[in-house]
Specification:
With 248 residues, the chain is of the alpha+beta class. 35% of the residues lie in helices and 15% in strands. It has 2 domains: 75 residues, no CATH class; 159 residues, 60s Ribosomal Protein L30, Chain: A. It contains 6 helices and 7 strands; from the N terminus they run αααββαββαβαββ. The chain has a 5-stranded mixed β-sheet with strand order 3-4-7-5-6. The longest helix has 23 residues. The radius of gyration is 31 Å and the shape is elongated. The two termini are 58 Å apart. This is Flagellar motor protein MotB. It holds the Pfam family MotB_plug. It is a single-pass membrane protein.
Length: 248
């Protein structure tokens, strides 16, 4: 019935009458289109004729435009930014605590050069890096050496107050294992990450604090130009952004 009524109206009216009928049934839509992009409507906002001029940022769909709200971009990914600023402040405090602990500990003072702090998209990454004169683990095993245990104890004491999720990643160099061995660099890097997690937990880090444990073998070298460099053997302990992971 609606279809036949529509056909009758189209045949029985001229252009002016059809335009009047359309405006009668959609007065609110016309008013909103003429007067605002939410400015004077129920949602507030800027007018489409303001200096901001949404139309210049619109995607064209036929003769109409789809406006992009000012707050829809990824620049607001952390909400008002308070949580990220809190994390950054906490990260800086942790970095200073670790540095201070190493300077005050005579037996570990020389290992200050083996720690790197980097703010990444994941969070604050603390890297404990091997060198020719220092190794975290016994050769080709996941057995932590005494000074590495001391170093992890200092790191654990420094990060214990932080509510951020912890991610631990093990890295190896590219030296292959001898034929016939069941171990490989994937297994070794994962085992070393797990050994690090256990040591941090033994030093007071709660089990619920750990978010991810993984090994990446030699796929993320510290020195890409020399895949056999001992510095490629390292442990990364990352304190994740709480906002990035939707955690409080």
């Amino acid at each position: 019935m609606a279809f036949f009524l529509l056909m009758w109206l189209l045949s029985a009216t001229d252009d002016e009458e059809r335009k009047a009928l359309a405006e009668y049934f959609t007065p609110t839509l016309v008013q909103l289109q003429d007067n605002s992009a939410g400015a004077d409507g129920m949602f507030g906002g800027d007018s489409i004729i303001s200096d901001e001029d949404y139309r210049s940022r619109a995607m064209q769909v036929g003769e109409r435009s789809l406006s992009i709200p000012k707050q829809s971009s990824s620049t607001n990914r952390f909400g008002d930014g308070d949580i990220k600023r809190q994390d950054q402040t906490q990260f800086e405090m942790i970095r200073r605590r670790i540095e201070q602990r190493l300077k005050e500990n005579e037996s570990l003072r020389e290992l200050y050069k083996n720690i790197r702090f980097t703010e990444t998209r994941e969070g604050l990454r603390i890297e404990l890096i091997d060198e020719a004169d220092f190794s975290m683990f016994a050769l080709a095993t996941d057995e932590l050496l005494p000074r590495a245990r001391q170093l992890l104890a200092e790191v654990a004491d420094a990060i214990k107050p932080a509510p951020n999720p912890l991610m631990i990643r093990g890295h190896t160099d590219a030296l292959p294992f001898s034929s016939g061995r069941t171990m490989n660099n994937w297994m070794l890097s994962t085992a070393r990450a797990e050994a690090t997690r256990k040591e941090l937990h033994r030093n007071g880090i709660d089990s619920d604090s750990f978010f991810k444990i993984e090994g990446v073998a030699d796929r993320e070298p510290y020195t890409p130009d020399d895949i056999y460099d001992p510095r490629n053997r390292r442990i990364s302990i990352t304190l994740g952004w709480r906002s990035e992971l939707n955690l409080n």
